[in-house]
Amino acid sequence: MIVAVINNKGGTAKTTSSVNLAAGLARQGYKTLLVDLDSQASAALSLGMSREELNPGMSEAIMDGMPMEEVIRSRISAGLDIAPGGMDLANTDLNLADIPGREKRLNIQLQRVAGSYDWMVLDCPPSLSLLSVNALVASDYYLIPVKPEYLSMEGLAGLNQSVQRLKKGLRVAPTLLGILLTIVHPSSRAARQVMQRIRQEYGEYVFQDYVRQDVRLLEAPEAGRSIFDYAPRSNGAMAYTRTVKELLARSQQ
Ligand SMILES: Nc1ncnc2c1ncn2[C@@H]1O[C@H](COP(=O)(O)OP(=O)(O)O)[C@@H](O)[C@H]1O
Ligand SMILES: [Mg+2]
Q1: Which ligand is nearest to the CA of 6?
Q2: How far is the CA of 35 from the centre of ligand 2 (A)?
Q3: Worst-scoring range by mean pLDDT, 41-50, 86-95, 167-176, 218-227?
Q4: What is the pLDDT of residue 44?
Q5: According to a count of CB atoms within 10 Å of the terminal CB, is the N or C end of the chain lower?
Q6: What is the CATH code for 2-250?
Q7: Residue of 218, 235, 240 to test ligand 1 pocket, by largest number of atoms within 8 Å of CB
Q8: Could you give phi then psi for residue 82, rounded to 5 degrees?
């Protein structure tokens, strides 16, 4: 199964969720590939890769057709491989525009290695650029992390409309796996109200569990580790463990 973690807004915990859901799936015994599609390479860096190690990365796979086997770094931790992002992805997005079959480049690459993985988790950039379109085309599912705050509802409605429009225009149509509420400050009345409105509007699409603000989730990337390795008893680790279970139930794995 392939799931794109997508939101055109920055700072909604796409990378944090991609990293920890991928690590959580690996811990559950699923062979997992984390695909970093962001030019900041935050996912790769969060799991302890150094900047010098980022090349070759997904830019080479998408633009130059470099075999995924040469891009994938194996056994970042047990059961978890990673295909790193990097600065070149910023150009990739622009250069893709001129290429025939530009929406399918990632799909072709991921299909080549699909047999080796139970799950692939795609960490998308904070835009609905061609890279995100490639991610949607390549995916069975997409998951939207949302930080409940002022204008979240509007952002979410806009994102859903854009994805619907894209799905109509493209032949393959990923299913919405769910909306994950993240970086939640439960003592904030505003956050609670936004969460309630999102649940009213999107009902069952919203994951039961949400991820609270947890300083451990902020610290783990600096240590180059997933939350499960960095702070296994933290609130964040427990939230992502439950979210992995719910993700599996939703995808009926
Ligand atoms: N639950 C959380 N609690 C506290 N900080 C978080 C949490 N989730 C993410 N963060 C932090 O918020 C910032 C944005 O998260 P990130 O995953 O990079 O978002 P995105 O990829 O959507 O831009 C990062 O500094 C990250 O460490
Ligand atoms: Mg990110």
Answers
A1: 1
A2: 12
A3: 167-176
A4: 97
A5: C
A6: 3.40.50.300
A7: 218
A8: -140, 140
**Ligand 2 centroid vs 218 CA: distance in angstroms?**
13
Q: Which residues contact 239 (CB under 8 A, 6 or more apart)?
A: 209, 210, 211, 212, 214
Residue 18 CB less than 6 A away from ligand 1: no
Ligand nearest to the CA of 215: 1
pLDDT higher than 80, residue 75: no
Closest ligand (CA of 7): 1
**Domain limits of the chain?**
2-250
| Alpha-carbon gap, residue 146 to 143, rounded angstroms | 10
Closest atom of ligand 1 to 220 CA is 27
8-251-17-154 Cα dihedral, nearest 10 degrees: 30
Q: Which pair of structure tokens corresponds to residue 70?
A: 């040469």
Distance CA 239, CA 229 (A): 14
Residue of 232, 178, 233 lying closest to 210 (CA atoms): 178
Taking the CB of residue 97, how many other CB atoms lie within 10 A of it? 9
Cβ 216 under 6 angstroms from ligand 1? no
pLDDT at 126: 95
Q: Judge if the beta carbon of residue 42 lies within 6 A of ligand 1.
A: yes
Q: Residue 170: its pLDDT value, please? A: 82
